[in-house]
Design brief:
Helices cover about 35% and strands about 25% of the residues. Bound molecules: adenosine-5'-triphosphate. The site of adenosine-5'-triphosphate has 22 residues, from helix 5 and helix 6. It comes from Oxobacter pfennigii.
Length: about 350
């Protein structure tokens, strides 16, 4: 039968939203941020990168909001505005071509939160909505053989959540979702700099420090950089040099929580699957996988091979889109929670 609709996989992430279109690959990538007028109209003024530039710099009548927190919808209306904007920007809607969309959710979300994600996507113009657990999408997008009767281990470290899962035969055998990921590392850097140096820095500066000189493990190539903030004693702007070693100390607590979650899941893994994991190792996805030295630290702590996926930031969106391309494969159908609702 002629199918006039186009298919999309969406990674509606806490930090970034990505869209994968069937046959075209990743066609859209923007920060999940909306700047709105701070009055009763709640008029959107900027969405995506333009809005991210405004975080921490807006005048009183404008607020830059990240509508998703810890991987779930914290502000439904703003999420809907954002989704509508993103879907329309990436895909010109018309009567025949409302897209079928697969969206991902962290494995810890409640059914109410899942419903909210589904609803926001229908309202943004989808014809059908399929929901897929984030670690499953990440594993498919990283090219792991999720349909095989063999265990694969995925650790997806995003902005708001870290999902650790063992997958076999198209299903999740064991999993843990932590609300500790990239954002928490940024907050730990802000707190450390404030506590050690009485210097107040913003979340965006902290993220920049983490990306430029941050590391989870001492690999012998430490760096340093100068950061700008406000001195809490004098109230004046100040420049401070910081080193990789300091940032490693600042983020050690959340990094250790991620390592503990990995160990907990390994302990819960059935023996047959554990032996597969010993052979294949652990695959890291999500932006957090790019934290310098994290793969080495996990290898040291678990004694397992650790591989960073080829395009870690894209895996969830790619996996979500690939599911729609493979709806006839039983392993992939198992992975989906299919909603037949049509609007
Ligand atoms: N090179 C890097 N080093 C360390 N962290 C990084 C790097 N690049 C990106 N990140 C972090 O990755 C996070 C974003 O990752 P990603 O886009 O996978 O998250 P998300 O899918 O939006 O979040 P979630 O899955 O929690 O909803 C941010 O916290 C960002 O700071």
């Amino acid at each position: 039968m002629l199918n006039l609709s186009r298919d999309m996989g969406i990674d509606l992430g806490t930090a970034n939203t990505l869209i994968y279109e069937k046959g075209r690959g990743i066609t859209f990538r923007e920060p999940s941020v909306v700047a709105i007028k701070n009055d009763s109209s709640k008029r959107p003024l900027a969405v995506g990168s333009e809005a991210k530039q405004m975080i921490g710099k807006t005048p009183g009548d404008i607020v830059a909001i990240r509508p998703l927190r810890a991987g779930v919808i914290a502000d439904f209306d703003v999420t809907q505005i954002m989704m509508k904007h993103f879907i329309n920007k990436s895909f010109k809607r018309n009567f025949f071509t409302r897209p079928r969309i697969t969206a991902c959710y962290p494995s810890s979300v409640t059914s109410v939160e899942m419903k909210a994600i589904e609803e926001a996507i229908y309202l943004a113009g989808a014809k059908n909505v399929f929901l897929l657990p984030e670690p499953m999408a990440a594993a498919i997008g990283a090219g792991l053989p999720v349909e095989d009767p063999s265990g694969s281990m995925i650790v997806d470290i995003g902005g708001g959540t870290t999902d650790v899962a063992i997958i076999s035969l198209g299903g999740i055998v064991a999993n843990k979702s932590l609300q500790i990921a990239g954002d928490e590392l940024d907050s730990s850097i802000v707190s450390y700099i404030r506590k050690e140096y009485n210097l107040m820095i913003g979340d965006r500066t902290a993220e920049q420090v983490k990306i430029e000189i941050g590391s989870a493990y001492c690999t012998g190539d430490d760096k340093s950089m100068k950061i700008k903030g406000r001195d809490l004693v004098t109230g004046l702007p100040k420049i401070l040099p910081v080193t990789s070693a300091e940032i490693r100390e600042a983020i050690s607590e959340p990094v250790n929580s991620i390592i503990d979650a990995i160990k907990t899941i390994l302990e819960q893994t059935p023996p047959e699957l554990a032996s597969d994991i010993m052979d294949k190792g652990i695959t890291l996805t999500g932006g957090g996988a790019l934290l310098h030295g994290l793969d080495m630290l996990i290898r040291k702590e678990t004694d397992l091979k650790v591989t960073i996926a080829e395009t870690p930031l894209d895996c969830v969106a790619i996996g979500a889109g690939m599911v729609l391309e493979n709806l006839d494969k039983p392993g992939y159908i198992n992975a989906l929670s299919f909603s037949k609702k049509m609007k």
